[in-house]
Design a protein that fits this description.
Blueprint (H helix, E strand, L loop, with lengths): L3 H12 L15 H8 L5 E7 L2 E2 L8 E4 L4 E5 L4 E11 L2 E6 L3 E2 L6 H16 L2 E5 L2 E6 L2 E8 L3
Antiparallel strand pairs: 1-2, 1-3, 1-10, 3-4, 4-5, 5-6, 5-7, 8-9, 9-10
Helix pairs in contact: 1-2
Length: 153
């Protein structure tokens, strides 16, 4: 397995092959997108969409943060969570896989628990990551399952 800094350095070139949900090839990443890819680690991301639907505004949005040791931490709407992750080279782009997501076991209201369940299932299905227009998108095949915005500081 390659080190994370090495993989991050390869991401801009790998993105040239990613078509996302479009049938045409994606344009080369902009300088802004290259910078965003290099700062994927140690950046706080706030989930904006799950399976193409906006996160319910009444619910605390799930969050995600990648560390440089292969762990992703955050919240799942109600609980704190973490999961191992692994970057990989793929012919069509920047590969990303999460291991089993573990979390605390607090109960929440029905809407929050529904978001938490959907978020966790989507996260465990991810196999590709892109950054488009400053937004982190996590994919399962050709379906964008999660979309994140960079957290405001």
């Amino acid at each position: 397995m390659r080190s994370i800094p090495t993989i991050l350095a390869l991401i801009p070139a790998a993105l040239l092959f990613v078509g996302g949900c479009q049938s045409t090839p994606a344009p080369a990443p902009s300088p802004e997108e290259r910078l965003a890819l290099n700062s994927l680690v140690d950046t706080d991301w706030v989930c904006a969409e799950i399976q193409g639907a906006p996160v319910d505004a009444k619910v605390s949005a799930p969050t995600l943060r990648f560390d440089d040791e292969g762990r992703a931490t955050g919240s799942t709407a109600v609980n704190r969570s973490n999961a191992p992750y692994q970057f990989s080279d793929r012919a069509e782009g920047f590969g990303l896989r999460f291991g089993l997501v573990i979390s605390t076991r607090m109960a929440g209201d029905e809407a929050s628990m529904r978001v938490e369940s959907s978020f966790t299932k989507a996260l465990e299905s991810v196999d590709l990551a892109t950054i488009e227009g400053g937004r982190l998108k996590l994919w399962n095949g050709k379906v964008c399952v999660l979309a994140f915005n960079r957290a405001k500081e």
